[in-house]
Amino acid sequence: MAAHPSFVVEDQSAVVDFLTKHLAPERRVDTHGAVVFLAGDRAYKLKRAVKFPYMDFSTVAIRAAMCRAEIEINHKLAPEIYLGVAAIYRSADGALALGGVGEWRPDAVDWVVVMRRFDEDGLLDRMAGRGSLTPGLMAALGARVAAYHNRLEPVSGFSGPDDYRRSVAADIRQLREQGDRLDEATTEALAVALPAALEPFIELVARRAGAGAVRRCHGDLHLRNIVLIEGQPIPFDAIEFSQRIASIDVLYDLAFALMDLCDRDLRALANRLLNDWLWRIDELPQASHEEALALLPHFLSRRACVRAFVEASGAAVAGKTSEIARAYQRLALAFLRPAPPRLLAIGGLSGSGKTTLALKLAPDVGRAPGAVVVRSDVERKRRAGVALEDRMPAGTYTPEASARVYSACLARAERALRAGHSVVLDAVFARADERAAAEALAVEVGVPFEGIWLDVAKDVAQARVAARKADASDATPAVVERQFGYDLGRITWERRIA
Questions:
Q1: What Rg value do the Cα atoms of the chain yield, rounded?
Q2: What DSSP string describes 141-199?
Q3: CA 450 to CA 424: how far, in whole Å?
Q4: What is the CA 329 to chain-centroid distance, rounded?
Q5: 246 and 324 together in one domain
Q6: Distances (CA, A) of 412 to 55, 185, 283, 374
Q7: What average pLDDT does the structure give for the chain?
Q8: What phi and psi, each to the nearest 5 degrees, are found at residue 81?
Q9: For the purposes of burial, counting CB atoms within 10 Å of the CB of 156, is it exposed (0-12), middle (13-18) or buried (19 or more)?
Q10: 56: which DSSP letter?
Q11: What is the DSSP letter of 223?
């Protein structure tokens, strides 16, 4: 194996030696594209002089532009972290020196991005390793990413059908170029499976692009690029080096974090992240996010492929091979194995624990990362344009409004099911015709159905709803009192004591 891989195009050893001596860092972090020096309360990121098909840092001028672009793009996401750019230049005596943040130096021999250092124990990949990630943190991350995606303007000219085909071909080429650094048989299996998973949905790809789903996104949203600061998950290190790579479907952007969680056997957390994102992302009626779930296995697989060849490239810089890279290959192939969809409906009066059970069961239903949870409480507020944590105006809970909400829930569930993704319906289902409609949907779409009814004591239900905070449900103890007077009719679903 070559000591200096062909993608390394310039010797930066003098700059690296200078920064090491000048900064006296406590630690140095090496990746395939950068060297990061951690010194005091600052981090200094030197872009490696490398040239890949997907990333070009081959000249000082390009690295200067990419450093500035990194600040511009990431300051929107993480102003707490990104400070500016500094030049490395030669002083009058010929020695290397480090300029001030924001100071432009036409004589620079290289550049660094200067960041405020954070506690690395707050990186989500490290938290995952310690078992410290929680459903609540995933809910917060889903909300933050959805809000970020909602602020982005749609872009055109990227991520159409031909762009996807070229991108998949590039992924396959890069896997093959790693040779025996990766498992070559798995590479060839992916070379067949990836295009095969895309082509049946190529019309959907075109509609998603036309509907505005393609935006200049983060592009590299795995757990190592998200950090917990003051209790909030902050994405950072968004892709600056390629508008093409970063101009992607918003679901493909989210898929990197979903893949990373699944890789770590944290499917339940991936499921919570997906659902909170779906509950909050703006609607695209012409090509809904539920329809886009047909592309999710392909998206997850491609994200695992990206990690495979990036890990293999990083290992090559150090003259090593990587079993982690091969594990990503196997994961990429596993995402493409079919898992037939199912419909599960959970009913019960307010406070019976429907949402708790739905979120508990969903990760194990269907393909990765588990079922979509369609909540009537969420649907009601989305339709009204009300934030999930805010209460609906008085007088909005009419029978007519509830009928429209149930119809919308079934329509959303149908879109997901027809996309091949399993669904958990979470609603009161107090009326026999509402329960029958859920069962009829499963028959119409041709998927297995399971119905669960949760029985609960009135005082328990009232205590639960009284204790809720910042929840999509507006139920109160008075609402529970009223519901206990309903004529529920004959309940044929499996009954459980909540």
A1: 25
A2: HHHHHHHHHHHSPB-SSSSSHHHHHHHHHHHHHHHHHTGGGS-HHHHHHHHHHHHHHHG
A3: 9
A4: 19
A5: yes
A6: 39, 40, 11, 7
A7: 93
A8: -110, -45
A9: exposed
A10: B
A11: G
Which residue range is the domain that position 322 belongs to? 124-335
Over residues 52-106, the pLDDT tens digits come to 888 899 999 999 999 999 999 998 888 889 999 999 999 999 999 999 998 889 9
Residue 41, classed as helix, strand or coil, is coil
Q: Are 426 and 375 in contact (CB under 8 A)?
A: yes
User: How many other C-beta atoms are found inside a 10 Å radius of the C-beta of residue 234?
Assistant: 20
411: amino acid identity, one letter:
A
- The β-bridge relationship of strands 82-90 and 110-116 is antiparallel
Residue 1 confidence (pLDDT): 41
Enumerate residues 6+ apart whose C-beta is below 8 A from 19.
25, 35, 37, 44, 46, 88, 98, 112
* 113 in the same domain as 168: no
Residue with tokens 């650094």: 181
- Give the pairing type, strands 226-229 and 214-216: unpaired
Whether residue 18 sits in one domain with residue 133: no
- Tokens standing for 453? 């009814």
In the chain, how many domains are there? Answer: 3
> What single-letter amino acid sits at 80?
E
- 366 and 316 assigned to the same domain: no
